[in-house]
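REQUEST ID: PR-0412
SUBMITTED BY: lab tech R.K.
PRIORITY: routine
TASK: structure prediction, single protein chain
INPUT:
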Amino acid sequence: MNPFPLAAPERRTLRQALACATLAGLAAILLLALSGWFLTGAAIAGASGAAAVAAFNYLIPSAAIRGLAILRTGGRYGERLLSHQAALTAMADLRGRLFGKLAAQDSRTAPDLAGGDASARLIGDIEALEDLVVRRPSRPASLAAACFAVALVALAGWKAALALAILLAALPPLLTLAARRLTTRPAADAAEALGALRTAFVDYAAARPEIIAYGLAPRVADTIAELARPLDRARAALARGDGVVAGLLAFYGTLAAALVFALSEGAAPIRALALLAAAASVEAMAAFARTALRQASVEQGLARLATLSALPGDLAPSPNTAATPLPITLGAEQLAPGARVAITGASGTGKTRLIEALAGLRMPVHPLALGDTPLARCTADALRRQSALAPQSAVLIAGSIGDNLRVARPGITETEMLAALHTACLDTTVAAMPAGLDTPIAEAGGTLSGGERKRLSLARALLARRPWLLLDEPSEGLDAATEAELVARLRGWLDATGTGLVLVSHRHAPLALADRRIDIATL
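STATUS: complete
OUTPUT:
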């Protein structure tokens, strides 16, 4: 059973696709059958002499053949157009819902899904499900075409019709059995190998500067090739299964045609009609073969997508109103809303861990509280509404500079974006770019330097308008003059907005933003 039912508009579109597929199937059967009758009748008339040729009416059958060919082509086009429209619309909605599930998870307790694995599920697995939707109209249309073929063969006698009906009834389970034996294991191997390969690609892409700097590209290429081999083997096995099933269909079509011809009765044109109708009926049942071959991959995709669908909660829309500021407790220290504090201590003592815990990204290891609630018991949504984080390693999305700023909250204007960029000392750089805010950047920041990426991340945090601003090494990678200007502008922004600040920095200049310092060793 498909755990992802289609919405009413997609179901309606698929019903229209089914009508087109049925029309195409019936037209294809009748086209081939009528062609067999017509050609045989014309040949007999030609062999019988001029009088028989003159008496033979070839205009109506030839016109019917042309009309059926047009009808078959139009029906197939309509089926593909409508079924793909339904599938693409449904899968776009499903991708959005499943991504919302992932985004709504509390990162402190959520299952560990690497970026590549999540990508494999949201892309490859949904494509398998999309294939299932696209093929949905073809099965009942194939059955209708097969029944019509049996009715046509009945013109040549009940024995031939009964033999064809038995053969066609046995074909779907035979195809399903053969496909399961040939594709179940390779489909599972392919899904697992693709997830591992995507994960490796994502990880290596993030580390490409180091890979290039240290001359590791050949080693990485060998690793990628090694990871790709199981996928190649699995896909080769699936291709072999496809070939075996195609051969089975060809044999089955020959068998059906021979058996029907042997059991047919009546004139030669009727027997030719039955022969070609039988061959066409097996060809029409190829939809069952395609579905059976894809079923194992679809089931693997459904199982992997079901783990995403079963995740608790859904992504709630960002609130349009600011959250009520709550105090933060760090050990014995309580920070009132609007307070500015710097967390100090040696490297490796957990300062970044503390910042990320306040942002709701990791479980706390220090005694922390938000309001009167220990941090570990706060919901991820409550923590997100209280704090905006500019992390030590800036995380950007593939898109434009403006796209990266707009994710902070709904309804951000261009004026607000330019003001935030000014506070982050990035406005002059963006203004010098030909496309300005529309300048595209890649997922890792593209041509932006490390300091520019951090300042873009900082501008995004400012735009979020949360009660607390969490900064982790905000001036890292900046020269002294730019750092001093950044600190001055941030101080002005904090004064104007009354936003609280929790800061981590090993550089001296940003520490001037804090009213007091807390050594993490005392928590």
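NOTES: The chain has 17 helices and eleven strands.
REVIEWED BY: pending
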